[in-house]
Amino acid sequence: MPNLTSAAAPGSPSATLAEIHDLLTLALDAGEKEQGYSDTERETRSYTRRARARISRLLDGES
Asked: Which domain of life does this protein belong to (predicted)?
């Protein structure tokens, strides 16, 4: 039986991933500073960017 639910329907995996991607982007934007970042902040931002990139690949259908 075919799946008639849109992949972008609220609560669907892709909608959830898209929301997480948006939240990670907001977190990066909110944490921007004109001055430099501490080592801990740089590391945290790096992990956040990597998570966002991974979610982008999942949304684009890549593994």
From this structure: Bacteria
